[in-house]
TrEMBL record, chain B:
The keyword Metal-binding applies. InterPro entries: PRibForGlyAmidine_synth_PurL, PurL_linker, PurM-like_C_dom, PurM-like_C_sf, PurM-like_N, PurM-like_N_sf. The gene is purL. Residues 10-56 form the Phosphoribosylformylglycinamidine synthase linker domain. HAMAP family: PurL_2. Pathway: Purine metabolism; IMP biosynthesis via de novo pathway; 5-amino-1-(5-phospho-D-ribosyl)imidazole from N(2)-formyl-N(1)-(5-phospho-D-ribosyl)glycinamide: step 1/2. GO terms for cellular component: cytoplasm. This is Phosphoribosylformylglycinamidine synthase subunit PurL. Keywords: ATP-binding, Cytoplasm, Ligase, Magnesium, Metal-binding, Nucleotide-binding, Purine biosynthesis. CDD domains: PurL_repeat1, PurL_repeat2. Part of the phosphoribosylformylglycinamidine synthase complex involved in the purines biosynthetic pathway. Catalyzes the ATP-dependent conversion of formylglycinamide ribonucleotide (FGAR) and glutamine to yield formylglycinamidine ribonucleotide (FGAM) and glutamate. The FGAM synthase complex is composed of three subunits. PurQ produces an ammonia molecule by converting glutamine to glutamate. PurL transfers the ammonia molecule to FGAR to form FGAM in an ATP-dependent manner. It comes from Paucilactobacillus suebicus DSM 5007 = KCTC 3549. Residues 77-191, 441-560 form the PurM-like N-terminal domain.
UniProtKB/TrEMBL annotation, chains C, D:
Part of the phosphoribosylformylglycinamidine synthase complex involved in the purines biosynthetic pathway. Catalyzes the ATP-dependent conversion of formylglycinamide ribonucleotide (FGAR) and glutamine to yield formylglycinamidine ribonucleotide (FGAM) and glutamate. The FGAM synthase complex is composed of three subunits. PurQ produces an ammonia molecule by converting glutamine to glutamate. PurL transfers the ammonia molecule to FGAR to form FGAM in an ATP-dependent manner. It comes from Paucilactobacillus suebicus DSM 5007 = KCTC 3549. The gene is purS. Its EC number is 6.3.5.3. Coiled coil: none annotated. Pfam families: PurS. The lineage of its organism: Bacteria, Bacillati, Bacillota, Bacilli, Lactobacillales. This is Phosphoribosylformylglycinamidine synthase subunit PurS. Belongs to the PurS family. It is an enzyme of class 6 (ligase). Pathway: Purine metabolism; IMP biosynthesis via de novo pathway; 5-amino-1-(5-phospho-D-ribosyl)imidazole from N(2)-formyl-N(1)-(5-phospho-D-ribosyl)glycinamide: step 1/2. Part of the FGAM synthase complex composed of 1 PurL, 1 PurQ and 2 PurS subunits. It is found in: Cytoplasm. GO terms for biological process: 'de novo' IMP biosynthetic process. Signal peptide: none annotated. It catalyses: N(2)-formyl-N(1)-(5-phospho-beta-D-ribosyl)glycinamide + L-glutamine + ATP + H2O = 2-formamido-N(1)-(5-O-phospho-beta-D-ribosyl)acetamidine + L-glutamate + ADP + phosphate + H(+).
């Protein structure tokens, strides 16, 4: 079973994900070029990494979403298999319509990079079932456009369907309803601004993020049976 | 559009003077060529012979620096230097100044400074793994400076963040003297498998020369010349050499170049970035270095604008461009590789088995000069130097006035140079690449070397105030501070890069400062066994004839042999014992408290003994290697009280300390000191190593900052005081 | 040949932090009489006439790429220019 | 009350990386007929009439803050509006 890491021009957290999957989780990651038409047949999960696809020109994620591989990522998501977008990956997934809402400039207009305490609001997803409900976790953030926006109607829906997965305890960027990460209605597509892959080894200051990857890997392995 | 004067008119009208060539230099060009240079040729010489490219005023001084050592794989002379870090790996680093562009357009100036230094690193075959900076601004009391600071930080951050290179450290100070001359130095550190080492040389008759990366426009023409001139009020309108950075293009370019280097080793002959003086300097240097000539067809140079003349094409400093020399027959391979990264690779010429550097445009030979004349015959000047009168002052030291000791500490912690810099470094991605073990906020930054148990420590340092009062000792102290940071983090210093930011070398007093500072630094390099492997010189940092303080930034890298030696500044556990290592004297000239209380630094700098410094650093290394320390922090600006507060703030734990000294001494900046903490069970072992070179002053614990002196005591609530220190800079920036 | 200008701004209901920042800066520079500032993006696009409806094309470009209609609105102006020598 | 629109773009000789990126993206989306794209900034500013020359004020704002005249050029349009209820 492969963990497909999509690589756009300008992706730069691709290797960080690769190392966590290979060295910490001991699974098999594979880079998939944005120009590919199809994911490998044995793809168990798709990961859209952070970075600055196309330099974040125009809007972050706006150009990357037209990459050829995104068609197959959509099909993959439609089959109910896990897709996770982290940081720029989250921005790409919202631009691509796989997740509702959009990400605006941070309220301060500045890029912000620091460890950020989050609450796990929904520990019933395939990405979070190893966390406790309402557990406090420390994930670094590193973004200039991480200010989540959605209209009231969408927000009501997100709440009703329990789609809000992570919220900031101390909202750093102005996000609507302190949202740090959401899933789609089906629960198999996760987008989040904070970086769990930067918090998966204690030498880097914390390993809370490892639980997220462990949840994901367990669910992928289970699907294989 | 520029009009090209005839050779005779260039001489008659002395056009070359506008481009920075003196009458003598022009005659020398005439002699080297055996004829008058034409317009293009004059431009080529003016650019390559500028201070920025040729170091004509600083070369004799740079000769003082030790540049060799048993770990040194590459000293100065290439894109960057390389130091062996065992296991077949090397660390590559260099620093670069972008002061003039940053003063004119802070966002783009700072951004393109980062872009330039990153290219130097990957041109060596190394992957950039960390960035640092060194920033010196004017006081934060006017809107213009606030804007400058904001935009400089944004420019550095946006470029490095987009490239995916963590910015892990740096320094920032504020003094009025930098108001019109921001100092913006950027340092990049890369990692290399030693087998992949590259050189910027173009050898082999008929081998193709490839231009890769962004198109050439008219931006930054004469940038090198511009960097070699002072600013003044009248000149405001001439400041037009702005270049816009495109970090996305550079990221693609970097990945393409690294793939070429790592996976097509056999076809690459040489690679160099197009930095100062763009195409001419990179191509001529590559040819000269290999002992070959070169022919370029300028019609083939990718161009963003129409109608560019050879002078403009050759001197443009458009960003994100590199020059390659590859083996003939592999053209398609190179073009395909760059196409994969949506980056352009175009053959623009070839190496020749001659000694001439020839340029063609529209089938005309537009320049034809001996390549060595251009690159190696630049004049070198020994400028007159004169000791400034301010250095000969009575030895007396400033006496701080302290009414309320608590109040004085709070005021000190609120000085922008002392206050937490988190509002700056949190705008940089310091964690991408997931190797950052010690993030900004402590002494040196530490990144692990993935796949090994080793780590690298790195720092940038300079205290221009000390150098202003005493350039020689100040130069030694800049080196010592850097080494102290490296040692405190558990590393052994390996070597340094530097940026020499000074005023105009035509001013004998400035030249004296340059001479003395570099002398002091060179001596310190010997003592710390840290050769200089790369560096950069930025002169003419003046406004209306007022030079900046001498500011030689030292960028030092150290090796941590195993991860259990990594040491941080934060106090860790209640009950740990706190020691101050080193003597404290009444040393107040040039200090933060002098600056705070009398608005300027003055007097004669306190004494400094570099032998004692080295001994104290070795002591800390011993303690760390024996696993006896919980924390280590070097003392610098602000002295003991500030150092203790910082270790407390970072550990979120209070202290209870008593020192046998007058209260003033809490703010003395006597060098060669550290604060370390020791677990109680290691007390005896630690004290045996420390001996007479340090003293137990108290314990970690509680929620107060409690420091007793022979006069008043400091007794402050930790959380509240930390808040003041954390918010001070952010408040003043708003 | 068409010369098209596209203006993109946040929807009115969405707070525009950039506009606020510029307003504050202008006030600080003593332009106290500035009441509101909106910051947006501005594109100038030259498009060759290929027989298709230019309005349709520009709207499609905006919907697909230039604007994120979840949070932004756009307007545009189209000028028809006769191809002449460039300056 | 004045309603001012300010348009800022890079000077022609200055690299416009965003414009290039957007152009490439449009081509990839099959808008092959797009010839050039310039990306700039756009401001809408409401300014209370305080008797001073509005043109002078807008130009000063642009020179001081909104544009960096080393690399950008600006143009503006001023509309005089009678204060009415806002929309
Ligand atoms: N202050 C200095 N100390 C040591 N080496 C220096 C110094 N200044 C310049 N050099 C070295 O001289 C060479 C030329 O420097 P520079 O012109 O800045 O390089 P580049 O062409 O990459 O811009 C480099 O190898 C650089 O490391
Ligand atoms: Mg170089």
């Amino acid at each position: 079973m492969k963990y497909a890491i999509i690589r756009f021009p300008g992706s730069n957290c691709d290797w960080d994900l690769f190392y966590v999957l290979r060295d910490v989780l001991k699974v098999t990651p594979e880079f998939i070029d944005y120009r590919e038409q199809q994911l490998p047949a044995d793809t168990g999960a798709v990961l859209v990494p952070g970075g600055f696809s196309y330099g974040d020109y125009l809007r972050s994620g706006a150009i990357a979403r037209f990459s050829p591989i995104m068609e197959d990522v959509k099909h993959f998501a439609d089959t109910g298999k896990p897709v996770i977008g982290i940081c720029n990956g989250f921005q790409v997934l919202t631009e691509a319509g796989l997740l509702p809402g959009a990400l605006r400039h941070n309220m301060s207009l500045d890029f912000i990079c620091k460890p950020q305490p989050l609450s796990v609001v929904n520990n019933q997803t395939l990405f979070t079932d190893q966390f406790e409900k309402d557990q406090t976790v420390m994930f670094p953030i590193a973004h200039g456009e991480g200010n989540y926006y959605c209209d009231d109607e969408t927000l009501t829906e997100l709440k009703q369907n329990n789609q809000i997965v992570f919220i900031y305890q101390d909202n750093p960027n102005g996000s609507t309803a302190d949202i740090a990460g959401i899933v789609n209605k089906q629960g198999n597509v996760l987008g989040m601004m904070p970086h769990p892959e930067r918090a998966s080894e204690s030498i880097l200051g914390g390993a809370d993020g490892k639980l997220l990857f462990e949840s994901l890997v367990a669910s992928v392995e289970m699907a294989v049976g | 559009m520029m009009t090209e004067l005839s050779p005779v008119d260039i001489k008659a009208q002395k056009l070359y003077q506008q481009w920075g060539l003196s009458d003598d230099e022009f005659s020398q060009v005439e002699k080297l060529l055996g004829r008058l240079p034409n317009f293009t040729e004059t431009g080529l010489f003016a650019a390559i012979w500028s201070e920025h490219c040729a170091y004509k005023n600083s070369k004799p001084l740079l000769k003082q620096f030790p540049t060799t050592g048993k770990r040194i794989l590459q000293g100065p002379g290439e894109g960057a230097g390389i130091i062996d870090i065992d296991d077949g790996q090397g660390v590559v680093f260099k620093a670069e100044s972008h002061n003039h562009p940053t003063a004119v357009e802070p966002y783009q100036g700072a951004a393109t400074g980062v872009g330039g230094i990153v290219r130097d690193i990957f041109s060596m075959g190394a992957r950039p793994v960390a960035m640092l900076d060194s920033l010196h601004f004017g006081e934060l009391d006017d809107t213009q400076t606030k804007y400058l600071v904001d935009q400089t930080i944004a420019g550095i951050g946006d470029y490095g963040n987009c490239m995916g290179i963590p910015t892990v450290g740096g320094e920032t100070t504020f003094d009025d003297i930098f108001k019109h001359n921001t100092v913006m130095n950027a340092m990049c550190v890369g990692l290399l498998d030693n087998a992949d080492q590259q050189k910027g040389a173009a050898a082999g008759d008929d081998n193709p020369i490839y231009y890769v990366g962004a198109k050439t426009g008219r931006d930054g023409i004469q940038g090198a010349i511009f960097a070699s001139a002072e600013f003044s009020d009248e000149q405001e309108s001439q400041r037009s050499a702005v270049q816009v950075g495109d970090p996305f293009a550079e990221k693609q370019l970097m990945e393409a170049c690294l793939e070429l280097i790592h996976e097509h080793t056999d076809i690459l002959v040489g690679i160099q970035d197009m930095g100062a003086a763009g195409l001419v300097s990179s191509s001529a240097e590559m040819g000269a270095k290999a002992g070959y000539g070169m022919e370029l067809n300028l019609d083939l140079v990718p161009q963003r604008e129409a109608g560019m003349i050879p002078y403009e094409l050759m001197l443009s400093e458009s960003q994100e461009r590199m020059l390659l020399c590859i083996k003939k027959g592999h053209e398609q391979e190179v073009e395909d590789l760059f196409a994969k990264y949506e980056s352009e690779a175009v053959q623009i010429g070839h190496v020749t088995d001659s000694t001439q550097y020839k340029l063609y445009q529209h089938d005309q030979l537009v320049a034809d000069v001996p390549v060595h004349a251009l690159v190696d015959e630049a004049p070198v000047y020994h400028k007159p130097s004169r000791r400034p009168a301010r250095l000969d002052q009575a030895a007396g030291q400033f006496e701080p006035t302290i009414n309320d000791l608590n109040e004085t500490l709070i005021q000190m912690l609120s000085q922008p140079t002392i206050a937490s810099k988190h509002s700056i470094y949190e705008r940089y991605d310091s964690m991408v690449q997931t190797n950052t073990v010690v993030a900004p906020g402590g002494d040196a930054a530490v990144i692990r070397l993935r796949g090994t148990d080793k780590a690298l420590a790195m720092t940038t340092d300079a205290n221009p105030r000390y150098l202003y009062l005493e350039p020689h000792d100040g130069g030694q102290i800049a080196m010592s501070e850097a080494a102290r940071n490296i040692v405190a983090s558990g590393a052994i210093p390996l070597g340094i890069t530097d940026c020499l930011n000074f005023g105009s070398p035509e001013d004998p007093e400035v030249y004296y400062e340059l001479e003395q500072a570099t002398k002091g630094m060179a001596e310190a390099c010997e003592i710390f066994e840290t050769p200089v492997i790369s560096g950069n010189v930025s002169l003419y940092n003046e406004f209306n004839k007022q030079p900046i303080y001498p500011t030689p930034m030292v960028g030092m890298v150290g090796l941590i042999k195993s991860s259990d030696l990594i040491t941080t500044i934060d106090f860790k556990h209640e009950g740990d014992l706190i020691y101050v290592l080193g003597q404290t004297n009444g040393d107040f000239n040039g200090t933060e408290i002098q600056k705070m209380q009398q608005q300027e630094v003055s007097g004669r700098l306190f004494d400094f003994d570099i032998t004692y410094e080295k001994q104290q650093q070795d002591l800390v290394t011993n303690l760390i290697n024996s696993h006896l320390l919980q924390s280590a922090h070097d003392l610098a600006e602000g002295g003991l009280a500030v150092g203790l507060a910082e270790s407390s703030f970072n550990g979120n734990v209070g202290i209870d300390v008593a020192v046998d000294m007058p209260q003033n001494y809490l703010f003395a900046e006597t060098q060669s000191r550290f604060i370390v903490s020791v677990a109680p069970e290691n007390q005896a072992a630690a004290e045996k190593v420390i001996g007479e070179n340090g003293a137990l002053i108290g314990k970690v614990g509680g929620s107060q900052l409690l420091i007793r002196t022979n006069d008043q005591d400091i007794n402050l609530d930790l959380a509240k005081t930390k808040q003041t220190w954390r918010e001070a800079l952010a408040c003043q920036l708003n | 040949m068409y010369h098209v200008k596209v203006y993109i701004t946040y929807k009115p209901s969405i707070l525009d932090p950039q506009g606020e920042a510029v307003k504050t800066a202008l006030h600080r520079l003593d332009y106290q009489n500035v009441e509101t500032v909106t910051v947006g993006k501005y594109f100038e696009i030259d498009i060759k006439d290929d027989g298709r409806s230019i309005e349709d094309e520009v709207e499609k470009m905006c919907d697909e790429l230039l604007a994120n209609v979840n949070m932004e609105t756009y307007r545009y102006e189209i000028e028809s220019v006769t191809q002449t020598a460039e300056d």
